[in-house]
Design goal:
By secondary structure, the chain is an alpha+beta fold. The chain has five helices and 13 strands. The chain has two domains: 83 residues, Arc Repressor Mutant, subunit A (Orthogonal Bundle), CATH 1.10.10.10; 125 residues, Sandwich (Immunoglobulin-like), CATH 2.60.40.680.
């Protein structure tokens, strides 16, 4: 018999990050976490976190403690047990989830960057085997903290093959720079964007003689079929 989620959790599933937040808090050693901790560990954007938070609090899955941290409410505790049972018995789909296709987004850039000097950064997707379905219209949104970029958005027609593009990143006069790549899937009608996840990396910034060896980072994201 295939594992099935209860209906109330199926209704939460289309909201990116909601079920993962319940899983995360259930497994947290202290039973509670701050918004920043949850977003960093689950790689949630502020927009994605905000939408999930409103639904989870309104429906009594999580609650905020006096110290500002979040913990599971009574309904959330029960739901975490239901999710654990579902996860233990669900068929292995590569971690993508029902109706989802898992894919790795990759960033490759020098280990160190020089303040005020532009460097090329490679961003792309690893290929997948098997049936990817129809190519997905994907939007890559770039953001730099303590730096500037030569582009903010790009659109990709992503199929099963690999994809790679190059952007230019210029650090400002800070010790580190953060590059964030958020991935969105455009609906077939071209109106709505689904937040699929993303990745961010922090890179040291030096004045001269950088370590220019390329380092690659990857994160798993999920597309709708």
């Amino acid at each position: 018999m295939n594992a099935q989620l209860p209906m109330h959790l199926i209704q939460l599933e289309p909201l990116p990050g909601a079920l993962d937040i319940i899983r995360y808090l259930a497994k947290h050693p202290e039973g509670a976490a701050s918004a920043d901790e949850i977003c960093d560990d689950l790689e949630l954007s502020e927009r994605r976190w905000g939408k999930a938070l409103r639904r989870l609090i309104t429906n009594n899955y999580i609650e905020q403690r006096p110290d500002g941290r979040y913990e599971l409410a009574r309904r959330g505790i029960t739901s975490a047990q239901e999710l654990a049972e579902y996860d233990a018995n669900a068929p292995d789909d590569g971690g993508a989830g029902a109706g989802k296709i898992a894919r790795d987004v990759v960033i490759a850039l020098p280990r160190q960057l020089v303040a005020g000097k532009s460097s090329e950064v490679l961003v792309g997707f690893a290929p997948v085997s098997g049936d990817f379905g129809s190519p997905a219209d994907v939007v890559l949104r770039y953001e730099a903290v303590h730096g500037t970029l030569n582009t903010r958005d790009s659109m990709v027609k992503l199929g099963a093959a690999s994809h790679r593009e190059t952007i230019t990143l210029t650090p400002q006069q800070y010790d580190t720079i953060r590059l964030k790549v958020s991935v969105f899937q455009l609906a077939e009608d071209g109106e709505d964007l689904t937040d699929c996840g993303g990745i961010y990396v922090d890179v040291d910034v030096v004045e001269e003689s950088p370590n220019s060896m390329l380092v690659a980072y990857s994160a798993n994201i999920r597309f709708n079929r």
